[in-house]
Design a protein that fits this description.
alpha/beta, D-Maltodextrin-Binding Protein, domain 2, nine-stranded mixed β-sheet, three-stranded antiparallel β-sheet
C-alpha cells in the first residue's frame, strides 16, 4: 500500500472515530441541551492551541491571550458566565471537544464540510485566506515552483489536507511560531498558513520572508467559526446571539483593532 493510501486510511479511520464519538455525545444529551448544564456550572470552557499568535498565544505572564480568547471571554460574559481557557494540541482538539473536555473551540477553526459532519459551528467570526511564504532568495515565486520543495504546515489544519491532496513533500508542526522558525532555519523551503496570522507574526518577529502569489482557486476566503458539539441548538443560539451583539455594538471592532489592527469580519 502506498504512503498516500496509508495516510488516507488513517484520516478515514479518524473521521469514523469522531463520528462514533458524536453519536455517543448526542445520545447522552438527547433532549437535554447543554446550555442548562453550562449555566448551572457558571463557566464556559473554551479550547484553543495557544500557539497561534496573535489570535491565541501564551504571553510572558503565562496567560493565554489574543483575539480568540478575547472574543470567547466576551461571549461568555454576555451569557452571564465565567470563562475557562484550555490549551490543547490542535490535531486532537475536535476529539477533545467530543469527549466533553471543554464546551467549545474558540481557536480560529476553519469551517469545512468534513468538520461539519461531526461538529456544529457558531459564526463565522472572521475571514482569512490561505497564504504561502518563503525566503527572498529561495527562487520560489509560484505554486508550481513549490511542488518539489519541503513544505511546512501545522498538524491537523486544513492546509495540511490541502498539501497532502496535492502530494507535496510536507513536514508538520505544532503551530505557527514553530513553522516560522523552521523556515528561518532552512529546515523547510516554504510554509503554508492562514494569511492574516502569518503576515502579522512575520512583521512582529522581523522575519525577512516574502509571500508567494497563489492562484485565486487556491486562496479562496476561509471562514473561522466556533465549534460546539452537535445536538445543542439552544447553546448555539445563545452563543450566536452574544456574538452578533458584540459585532454590532463596536466591541468586536475594538478587539480586532487591539489584536489584529483591522476589522477582519
Amino acid at each position: 500500500m502506498s504512503v498516500k493510501n496509508v495516510l488516507k486510511n488513517i484520516k478515514t479511520t479518524a473521521l469514523a472515530s469522531a463520528i462514533a464519538l458524536t453519536g455517543v455525545a448526542m445520545m447522552s444529551t438527547a433532549g437535554a441541551d447543554e446550555l442548562d448544564k453550562i449555566k448551572e456550572k457558571g463557566v464556559l470552557r473554551i479550547a484553543m492551541s495557544g500557539a497561534y499568535p496573535p489570535f491565541n498565544f501564551v504571553n510572558d505572564q503565562n496567560e493565554v491571550v489574543g483575539f480568540d480568547p478575547a472574543i470567547g471571554s466576551e461571549i461568555a460574559k454576555r451569557m452571564g458566565l465565567e470563562v475557562e481557557i484550555i490549551t490543547t494540541a490542535w490535531d486532537g482538539i475536535i476529539a477533545g471537544l467530543l469527549a466533553n473536555k471543554y464546551d467549545a473551540v474558540v481557536g480560529s477553526m476553519s469551517i469545512t464540510e468534513e468538520r461539519q459532519k461531526v461538529i456544529d459551528f457558531v459564526g463565522p467570526y472572521y475571514t482569512t485566506r490561505r497564504a504561502m511564504f518563503t525566503k527572498p532568495d529561495s527562487g520560489i515565486d509560484s505554486l508550481e515552483k513549490a511542488a518539489d520543495k519541503r513544505m511546512g504546515v501545522t498538524l491537523g489544519e486544513t492546509h495540511e489536507d490541502w498539501a497532502r491532496a496535492k502530494d507535496y513533500s510536507i513536514r508538520t508542526y505544532k503551530g505557527l511560531p514553530e513553522l516560522l522558525l523552521e523556515l528561518k532555519n532552512g529546515r523547510v523551503d516554504v510554509i503554508v498558513n492562514d494569511g492574516i496570522a502569518a503576515i502579522l507574526a512575520i512583521k512582529e518577529n522581523g522575519y525577512d520572508f516574502v509571500q508567494v502569489t497563489l492562484p485565486e482557486a487556491e486562496s479562496q476566503p476561509i471562514s473561522a467559526g466556533i465549534a460546539i458539539r452537535k445536538g445543542n441548538p439552544e447553546l448555539a443560539a445563545a452563543m450566536q446571539a452574544a456574538l452578533d451583539a458584540l459585532m454590532e455594538d463596536g466591541t468586536y471592532l475594538k478587539i480586532a483593532e487591539e489584536w489584529i489592527g483591522a476589522d477582519i469580519r
